[in-house]
């Protein structure tokens, strides 16, 4: 397995994904991963469920581009991104990013870079169901700032 | 020319459909947005200047200066919130 992305409604097994990512590659000495899950609270409200929408085609294209960027920037061997869409509940797994490298530094950095990039550049939208009703989640300025640390200007959360 | 429009999330909900094909005289994305604004109603509301609207041309993020071509795909959507 090298650089792959899956957008899916079904759940995934982190342990299996990590095994598959490094299988057959004895150069690997470090595997870093991030798992995002649905919180029961957001912006002061309790979240009963969440619906994730995306832009089929562009989603895969934008994540492939960000993996290509990560490959240029960091000395990494493989990466895996999984993002779920559809209806999710608190505690459900939403997003998974994993990277392999010879030493930990490169995969730690690449994993964080991929998540920062995904947050502001990949076309996903969350809609939460709360006691006050359903609402679209607002983009955060802090996510733009996170990507800026890598020298990439993002203006996802800002009106022109 | 004909342009394929796509709408997502809150913009899709407000407009009431996920996409449409339009004939346009516009040559840039901004000019196309102005044509849609001129329709009034939900279009004027969600695409109003100053609203945080992100745009993509043929599935790549772009700004309002992007040049349109026959059969291209233009998407309008709110700031992204995945991850």
Structure commentary:
- The complex is a heterodimer of chains A (160) and B (83).
- Chain A is α+β, with helices and mostly antiparallel strands and 160 residues long.
- Chain A has one domain (2-148): Molybdopterin biosynthesis MoaE subunit (Aldehyde Oxidoreductase, domain 3), CATH 3.90.1170.40.
- In chain A, 32% of the residues lie in helices and 35% in strands.
- Chain A contains 4 helices and 10 strands, in the order βαββββαβββαββα.
- In chain A, the strands form 3 sheets. Chain A has a 4-stranded mixed sheet with strand order 1-6-8-2, with helices on both faces. In chain A, strands 7-5-9-10 form a 4-stranded antiparallel sheet, with no helix packed on it. Chain A has a two-stranded antiparallel sheet with strand order 3-4.
- In chain A, a hairpin with a 2-residue loop joins strand 9 and strand 10 (133-136).
- In chain A, helix 2 packs antiparallel against helix 3 (104-121) and helix 3 (104-121) packs across helix 4.
- Chain A starts with a strand and ends in a 12-residue tail after the last helix.
- By secondary structure, chain B is α+β, with helices and mostly antiparallel strands.
- Chain B has one domain (2-77): Beta-grasp domain (Ubiquitin-like (UB roll), Roll), CATH 3.10.20.
- In chain B, strands 2-1-5-3-4 form a 5-stranded mixed sheet.
- The longest helix of chain B has 9 residues, at 29-37.
- Chain B is globular.
- The chains are: A alpha+beta (160), B alpha+beta (83).
- At the A-B interface, strand 5, helix 2, helix 3 and strand 9 of A face loops of B.
- Chain A: This is Molybdopterin synthase catalytic subunit.
- Chain A: It catalyses: 2 [molybdopterin-synthase sulfur-carrier protein]-C-terminal-Gly-aminoethanethioate + cyclic pyranopterin phosphate + H2O = molybdopterin + 2 [molybdopterin-synthase sulfur-carrier protein]-C-terminal Gly-Gly + 2 H(+).
- Chain A: InterPro entries: MoaE_sf, Mopterin_biosynth_MoaE.
- Chain A: It comes from Limnohabitans curvus.
